[in-house]
What does this fold into?
Amino acid sequence: DVKVTQSSRYLVKRTGEKVFLECVQDMDHENMFWYRQDPGLGLRLIYFSYDVKMKEKGDIPEGYSVSREKKERFSLILESASTNQTSMYLCASSSPWGGRETQYFGPGTRLLVL
Amino acid sequence: RKEVEQDPGPFNVPEGATVAFNCTYSNSASQSFFWYRQDCRKEPKLLMSVYSSGNEDGRFTAQLNRASQYISLLIRDSKLSDSATYLCVVRPPKASYDKVIFGPGTSLSVIP
It folds into this structure.
């Protein structure tokens, strides 16, 4: 079974703090994704990575950066947290091989920025 | 127009009922289609892919209508455990690296 883990289930931070969210997958997947999920808006792609040290902006990259130094680990960084970044953050991974294109998600991190 | 649209519901149905959800997509050249399921306060998980010829998995049937640009999910003999949010997922044309677009989801509550 594919396992995607995220460093925290719940996180409370103050405005202006730097926030690190970590995601680790154990299936040697090439692709990794960071989404945020808000009521009524669904999942929106922040950034994704298709290889170590490679990254591409998603639909809402402003205020975020990412890092992928190892294949299994993909980090999301909020450089200076703001209240409008309060959300559920979901990490996912997938492999382009085999044709299924399934994304496997971690359990999510609920971030509250005060 | 949003790229992927769904009726948010909620759909409240009794056990044993048949329920259908539709999802529309804006780009006619979209490549692949999926239904994911998300339980309350849990992560999304793949329910089924949607093939051009339609496909069935037990009580679940998925259909694709390319001419009208919609996909559907039919659930027969609803169970309490089917209560969840159902996310329509579309892979747009020329999408790289498994990038997909998620719809906002349709909420289903199956009532005893």
Remarks:
- Chain A is about 0% helix and 55% strand.
- Residues 52 and 71 of chain A are 5 Å apart (CA to CA).
- Chain A has a mean pLDDT of 93.
